[in-house]
Design goal:
Strand order of the largest sheet: 2-1-3-4-5-6-7-8-9
Mean pLDDT: 94
Distance between the termini: 19 Å
Order of helices and strands: HEHEHEHEHEHHEEEHHHHE
Shape: globular
CATH superfamily: Ribokinase
Largest sheet: 9 strands, mixed
Structural class: alpha/beta
Radius of gyration: 17 Å
Low-confidence stretches: 135-144
Length: 275
């Protein structure tokens, strides 16, 4: 799979054709935007989180997303069971370690989930640094206090150790398998002013990896980030060229995710290799 905008467009087209079901165990804050992001990309969301049914939903799904944003003991158990099931069935699953490092309980759960072999881990720089150091890095919540570039060495080390893909979101997204590192230059600062955008792009990664195949998870992750970033760039500016506010931006983001065509992605997608 290439890294061009044409490759981004082809993978989006494949997602819309295959309509993968993504089982999302995620936080209350992100459910609405995440589900609608998946629908806009042609995927189908399943938002079930009860421990009594997560195993059944993973069996039906093409991919699994585990987001640890709002925790409870029941949800934590469901997350672990779902990840175990995905591993048993050899289905791709993506971990979003929201606010890893903020509390001992959260960090411990992220460590346990990481041991279950995620296909992709996606977080901001602070979360990835905390996960890589197993709690040595303290975060204050979901916001990152580090640029993505600062986390790149730890992301590469984590990816190599885990045998997975690690993606660090930021002004420039860093995606690595421990050996190869890709940089995605799409996005807009307004994404930081709308909650659940990071959570939603993680679900999009799960959908793209599902249709590309785990062996192409590095490229699929980069293409998902580029697609979401291009939509954000287009949503941020109105017809008069003025930057929108976060409320109208959120609505327009879903419109752009749904309406983006191949020609627009070919022109705007920016994925490169780190030197």
């Amino acid at each position: 799979m290439g890294l061009t905008g044409r490759a981004t467009a082809l993978l989006l087209e494949k997602c819309r054709e295959e309509n993968p079901l993504v089982q999302c165990i995620t936080n209350f804050v992100s459910m609405d935007l995440m589900a609608n992001t998946l629908l806009a990309a042609g995927a189908s969301p399943a938002m079930a989180h009860s421990i009594s049914e997560v195993e059944s939903f993973v069996e039906l799904a093409s991919a699994l997303l585990v987001n640890v944003g709002t925790l409870s003991e029941d949800w934590a158990g469901g997350m672990k069971l779902a990840a175990l099931t995905a591993g048993r069935l050899r289905k791709p699953w993506v971990l979003d370690p929201v606010a890893c490092g903020a509390t001992p309980a959260r960090t411990s759960l992220c460590k346990d989930l990481m041991a279950l072999g995620p296909t992709v881990i996606r977080g901001n720089a602070s979360e990835i640094m905390a996960l890589a150091s197993l709690g040595g890095e303290r975060t204050r919540g979901v916001d990152s206090s580090h640029p993505s570039e600062a986390a790149a060495p730890m992301a590469r080390a984590l990816a190599a150790r885990q045998g997975c893909i690690v993606a660090v979101s930021g002004a420039v997204d860093v995606v690595t398998d421990g050996t190869r590192t890709l940089l995605v230059g799409n996005g807009h600062p307004l994404l930081q002013k709308v909650t659940a955008t990071g959570c939603s792009v993680t679900a999009l990664i799960a959908a793209f990896v599902a249709v590309a195949g785990p062996e192409q998870a590095l490229e699929a992750t980069a293409h998902a980030l580029a697609y979401f970033g291009v939509a954000a760039e287009r949503a941020a500016v109105d017809e008069a060229g003025q930057v929108r506010g976060p409320g109208s931006f959120r609505v327009k983001l879903l419109d752009e995710l749904d309406l983006l065509c191949a020609a627009q992605l070919v022109h705007a997608s920016r994925i490169g290799r780190s030197t």
